[in-house]
Amino acid sequence: MGGRVADEPLEPQFLKPAPVREPRMWNLGDVLLITMMFLIPAFVFGMFLGGHPLALVGAQGVSYAISLLCARVIISLKTGTGFFKSLDWNYPGPVRLPQLLLLGLVLSVVVSFFSSALLPIPKNLPVEKLLQTRVLAIASMSFATVVAPFAEELYFRGILYGALRSSLEEERPRNALGALLLLSGFVFFYLAWRGRGSGYALFAPILLATGSLLFPLRRGRAPLLDGERQTMIAVVLTASAFAFVHGAQLAHSWGPLLAILVVGLVLTIIRVRMNSVAAGWLVHTAYNGTLFLISWSSTSGFRKLT
After folding, report:
1. Residues 177-186: tens digit of each pLDDT
2. CB atoms within 10 A of CB 36
């Protein structure tokens, strides 16, 4: 006869553990929402503060806090794990600390030297408005050394890179991203042709090249994308986005933006090789801190500003 064996214990249904929910990755739509949670407060603060540079530095810090709080809620809910663990924060430990700080120092000196020697750097860049007075210069450079590297590494090397890498693994989001990159590449070429900034000409071929790899031009043709190529494309796109957001400060000029692009590539490669966003943060902090010290020394403590 069928049925339950007499000696088999009856297991109460309410004692069965709930099925474990598979962790999900955040996507580029989530990144867009997080980005808007930075841009909207920054825009509102900009309107009410009347463009005062010192006040805008503080407003940028508040916008960072709002957007990262939003990111923490979204990513923690989707992954079911802690925010920093989901982003692969992974602090590298005291043994790596001096090495990473030294790397940031060397990177800053090398990039600064080659930029001034080989690249066309326009005079009177918009970022120089943050160095008009001693108080403003100290506040701006301190913010760039302490706050900005932490927020930018969480956003670019943590949130954006994670979403890009995840999107490249699935056909539908990969094709959508490819189409967006191709469209953006043509728009950037148009903006460069209209004289909106030579920096657009720097990013346009990058967008078109990566978009062509992601978007199948013929039905049934699979893109040549294994795991290594997916990582490479995510690294390039993350570094390009990192450089592009500095465009307004650098008059969208290709020379200084190329230097920032190189820095972004180094930081993203470190994040990937060490599986650590914190490693990139340490290098980024040392990089910006070295620029702070160079500016401090060359201006006698920001007392001789031109």
Report:
1. 999 999 999 9
2. 12
